Input
Amino acid sequence: MSRTSVARKLDEAPVAKPTAFEFLERGMQRVDVEALLKAGEHYGDNTDRELADLDSGKHPLQVRTQRP
Amino acid sequence: MIDFEADELLLALAAHARTLRTKARLNREAMLSGLAEARALSHGQPLDEPAALFFAFAPRSSKFGPIGRVFVFSFAHAQALALGYSLDMSDVELTIHEIRILRGEIDFAELRAWFASRLRPIGEKRPPMKRPRDTTG
Output
């Protein structure tokens, strides 16, 4: 089979649908997983405390961002 | 709307939790109701789906256990990527919006407008900042 016909077959092949695992994984690559886990564990539903820490720059997401 | 069923997402979430050495609560009811709400909010408009997912799942985040917040943030990003867009927003900004949703301080129309202003086709660079005019002479 020539290179051209191989390339044509590849073009015509259906694009494989990502699995749900791969789908979520792509999203996880856009967030700071470790800091979000830490924040969830630390604040729970206490939004007042979380907002106060965001205001003062002490939130785990901000602390990680400020690291050299 | 999103191509996956609730059970597929729950299994994927459990697998990610194992990889991250944390826990996921497999709350099928929360997943089904979150997906239904997101579908209703987006009214079949694909570009509204990331915002709709975030708005619907932010109040349900704790229903999925310690990985809940990672899931909700990642879900919105993943759906944007599946549509060929990236969300130009930080985790801190998303956290503030999540808190505003939890407190009832933002409605879907406002969140949708904010997401729409941050959607970028994949590969597009952020517009350069304008240099402030030098007025010192």
Q: What stands out?
A: Chain A touches chain B at residues 17-21, 23-28, 30-33, 35-37, 39-41, 44-45, 47, 50-51, 54, 59, 61-62, 65 (CB under 8 Å).
